[in-house]
Amino acid sequence: MPTEFSEQLTEILPRMHVWALALTRNRAAADDLTQDVAAKALSAQDSFEMGTNLQAWLHRIMFNHFISDTRIRKRFSEADEIPELPVASSQEDRTALQELSKAVKQLPRDQREALVMISLEGASYETAAARTGCNIGTLKSRVHRARLQLRSYMLGGPMVSPAADSASP
């Protein structure tokens, strides 16, 4: 089990780094966070149940570690200290955008269409509902399901197949 766990952890490290970048918005801090979480996961691997979602488990450890670390730094920071302004690396941004683009392409057509109109084009729900010929409630539901799908995928979960979303206008 330890070698299987280590192999799975090694495969997930690049995705963990993307998560860390999203949390910290700083490459050096993301490197540290990824390393800390990997070390914690290795030391706590006996508490992980093989067959469950390792990515979700690691994401929870990362998020909890980030929050704890932020609280500690906030408690001990001096009032006259100038905060560091994080600058995201374009390479990491491109990687995250590529993952997001891949996930959007996997959404069912009706969800993808609704999400693009509302989130990217900035259309109102009324306008988008009129363009698609469906009720506003149906459109809101599609956008909500699309966002849930994307969040699940970006956190390492599965995408539901288009057949599972058979709601029509």
Give an overview in words.
The N and C termini lie far apart (49 Å). The chain is 70% helix and 0% strand. The protein is an all-alpha fold and 169 residues long. The chain has seven helices and no strands. The chain folds into two domains: 2-75, Orthogonal Bundle (Rna Polymerase Sigma Factor, Chain: A); 105-159, Orthogonal Bundle (Arc Repressor Mutant, subunit A). Helix 6 (125-132) crosses helix 7. The model is unreliable at 162-169 (pLDDT under 50). It has helices at 2-24, 27-43, 54-76, 90-106, 109-120, 125-132, 136-154.
Features:
single chain, Rna Polymerase Sigma Factor, Chain: A, Arc Repressor Mutant, subunit A, 2 domains, disordered C terminus
Shape: elongated
Q: Any idea how many domains?
A: 2
Task: Report the major sheet.
Answer: none
> Mind telling me the CATH superfamily name of the largest domain?
RNA polymerase sigma factor, region 2, helix turn helix motif
At the first level of CATH, the class of the largest domain is Mainly Alpha
Report the order of strands and helices: HHHHHHH
| Mean pLDDT across every amino acid position | 82
CATH topology of the largest domain: Rna Polymerase Sigma Factor, Chain: A
N-end to C-end Cα span: 49 Å
Share of helical residues: over 70%
Helix-strand makeup class: mainly alpha
Count up the helices: 7
Short description:
With 169 residues, this protein is mainly alpha-helical. It contains seven helices and no strands. The chain is elongated, with a radius of gyration of 20 Å.
Topology diagram in text:
Layout: H1 2-24, H2 27-43, H3 54-76, H4 90-106, H5 109-120, H6 125-132, H7 136-154
Helix pairs in contact: 1-2, 1-3, 2-3, 4-7, 5-7, 6-7
